[in-house]
Design brief:
The protein has 329 residues and is an alpha/beta fold. It has 15 helices and seven strands. Helix 9 links the parallel strand 2 and strand 3.
């Protein structure tokens, strides 16, 4: 098989399983090196191994691919990665409203995320890097966001519409962590709580109610902030009046995100049931921080399907024109 293709598949599988970002990045870097090398260097093992960006593991993959074999490490990863989850709902999803690039805490440039979305058959992808308060994630100031917006939209073609967005932090008083002008310039706004997750229920409820009442908020992201597994450990869910918050989401046309990351499983099943009762819209999103994580949508689709969420109430089953009409409304 093609060596670069093998390296990229390994990177995607590592990303999907939320392995070390540095390991996945090493395989992506090696794929870029291989794609740029002349034939005589590729054919000479000594010269090939001496190239910057080619390490022992990536060299073994390249050589096995050159010998006409499926690399052993790729076979191992294919066996370890759980198989695709059959889901009628997953087949109806047309896009993803929550993804990150290396402009904030994602691992790859915009065009690499876009290429992965295009390969998955998405009709649209929203690039939603973090807002400035989240310094650990290199959140975007208004100036950086204004630079990013035209670069994002320039990635669109007749197969994929790339939407300019943000995952904006909900501040402690419920205000949004970006200027009104910049929020108004975007296609999609996902609002999420990232700080003071253990606030008492009453102030947390007020905080979230103010945020979802903002006319530019489209999606309430990973609403409880919980972590149930993974390398970051576990974290309990935030305490708030879910019925009041979801009633406000329904009133304001804000979709409740079904976050597809297995370590989040957010909202919990009992809160999905409350959101259904309150008449909410939903958005099944990957919250991808690497290209291979865009395929995590199957986890979110499986959870939403099991919870009985009607497809017509999931905005990411809508075509792009209907979606943008809702988002701008």
């Amino acid at each position: 098989m093609d060596a670069a293709d093998a390296l990229l598949e390994i990177a995607s599988l590592l990303e999907r399983e939320r392995a070390s970002r540095y390991r996945a990045k090493a395989f992506r870097q090696a794929a870029a090196v291989v794609s740029s090398l002349p034939a005589d260097v590729l054919a000479d093992p000594t010269l090939l191994k001496a190239q910057k960006g080619i390490g022992d593991s990536t060299f073994a993959v390249i050589r096995q691919a050159q010998q006409g074999r499926v690399p052993e490490y790729l076979l191992e990863l294919r066996g370890e990665v759980e198989p695709e989850r059959p889901s009628a709902l997953r087949a109806r999803l047309k896009g993803d409203l929550h993804s990150h690039t290396d402009w904030s805490d994602g691992t790859t440039p915009i065009d690499t995320m876009v290429a992965a979305a295009r390969a998955l058959g998405h009709e649209y992808l929203a690039i939603t890097d973090h807002s400035p308060r989240l310094k650990v994630a290199r959140g975007l100031s208004a100036e950086r966001l204004s630079e990013q917006i035209p670069l994002v939209r320039a990635q669109s073609d007749d197969r994929l519409t790339v939407l300019a967005g943000i995952e904006v932090d909900i501040l402690e008083d419920g205000a949004l962590d970006q200027t009104e002008d910049m929020l108004g310039a975007l296609d999609i706004v996902v609002a999420s709580v990232h700080s003071k997750l253990r606030m008492d229920a009453a102030p947390m409820t007020r905080r979230m109610l103010r945020a979802v009442a903002h006319p530019r908020v489209n999606v309430l992201g990973h609403c409880t902030g919980r972590l149930v597994e993974g390398s970051r450990g576990t974290r309990p869910r935030s305490d708030f009046d879910a019925r009041a918050v979801f009633a406000a989401c329904a009133e304001n046309g804000v979709a409740v995100e079904v976050n597809s990351r297995p370590e989040r499983q957010d909202p919990p099943d009992d809160l999905i049931a409350i959101a259904l009762e309150e008449g909410c819209l939903f958005s099944i999103d990957s919250d991808a921080h690497a290209p291979g994580q865009l395929s995590l949508l199957d986890h979110g689709a499986e959870r939403a399907e099991a919870a009985g969420v009607p497809p017509e109430r999931i905005v990411t089953t809508w075509g792009v024109e209907r979606l943008l009409g809702w988002a701008r409304g």
